[in-house]
Amino acid sequence: MDRRGSALMTRSTLAIAVAILLLGTLQASANSTATIRPANYDLPKQSHLFVVKNKGKYGFIDKSARIAVPFAFDDAGIFSEGLAAVLVGDLWGYIDMDGRFVLPPKFGLAEPFSDGLAAVQLDGKWGFVSRMGEMIPFPFTDVFPYPFREGLAPYGEHESRGYIGTSGQIKIRGQYQDVGFFHDGLGAVCNDYKWGYVDSSGNLVIPEKLYMTYGFSEGLAAAAMDDDRWGFIDKAGKFVIPLHFQEVFGFSEDMAAVNVHGKWGYVDKSGSIVIAARFDDTSAFSEGLAPVQIGKKWGYIDAHGTVVIEPSFDNAGEFGDGLAEVEVAGKRGYINTSGAFVWPASE
């Protein structure tokens, strides 16, 4: 299992996975979250150290392509909160950025850290582990223990969804048909197939009236009233950017991707088009650049919409710490912000 993802998701598939967060239907081994990810989300943004595969083994490089952690593992995940899950034989453990084991390999499955905890499977049962190895049992059996965001994580039991805190206690009781992750202090909740938002105390602050919605990002949330009318709401639930778009994705670096008559461009927080809708697919801005698809190939644009890295990749991830993971003919490598390979596409 490649911890960076499996098959590439189409944008329409991703929209369903993100907007309709049916916790019981997602794979327990998935490395995805409910945060807004582009169509190429299985090439996640990484930072500080970057996972690579060489001669069948996984290790890590730094942004200068220096080997920082030797190729010694059978699989590996990205670093999160200074630790990365690595596979040795059939068991997962966690290493630090020097390649030293902080938590020895003993887990059947291991997810990234968030809010100081990581979901792990031990002896066939799921729970959360701290950096010190302290285990918090996960007593709910019908859903996978999802990552914490802002101190809360979704849980489900007997078809009802709610949130637990970092000590495993129920913080917002299961009373919803579905829930999403917390972002910017609010979590999306659903009853009768309509979405609204609660605060961290469980108070309903935006009524359940939305057809679909994503998590808040930079103070706004993408929201829809039907299949093909999308806009953005503020934290009062008011549409501050009208329902003018066929699809939208969340804000990043003060811009959001929007679909206008089948092509993708970007708007600012006033709703004005700042980069014309002329791309076949897009992704979020990160470090001043965004992946875009022109025809069948991916390249990168800057904040003015100028193509600065020519479309030559079969897939392209977001930049993190100066590097982005790209795919060419089924092989993955890393480029810098000039578009030059610092680690050639391989394996």
Tell me what the structure shows:
By secondary structure, the chain is mainly beta. It has a domain at 285-347. Helix content is 3%, strand content 52%. The protein is built from 1 helix and 34 strands. The strands form 9 sheets. A 4-stranded antiparallel beta sheet has the order 4-5-6-7, with no helix packed on it. Strands 8-9-10-11 form a 4-stranded antiparallel beta sheet, with no helix packed on it. A hairpin with a 2-residue loop joins strand 12 and strand 13 (160-164). The chain is flat, with a radius of gyration of 20 Å. The protein starts with 10 loop residues before the first helix and ends with a strand. Mean pLDDT is 86; it is low at 1-43.
Helix content: under 10%
| Low-pLDDT ranges | 1-43
Give the terminus-to-terminus CA distance.
14 Å
Name the average pLDDT. 86
Shape: flat
Helical/strand content category: mainly beta
Count of DSSP H/I helices: 1
Count of individual beta strands:
34
Measured by DSSP, the beta-strand proportion falls in over 45%
Largest β-sheet summary? 4 strands, antiparallel
Taking all Cα atoms into account, the compactness measure Rg is 20 Å
* Widest sheet: strand ordering: 4-5-6-7
Structure in a nutshell:
The protein has one helix spanning 11-19; strands spanning 50-54, 57-61, 67-73, 75-76, 84-88, 91-95, 101-107, 109-110, 117-122, 125-130, 135-137, 153-157, 160-164, 170-176, 178-183, 186-191, 194-198, 204-210, 212-213, 221-226, 229-233, 239-245, 247-252, 255-260, 263-267, 273-279, 281-282, 289-294, 297-302, 307-313, 315-316, 323-328, 331-336, 341-346. By secondary structure, it is an all-beta fold.
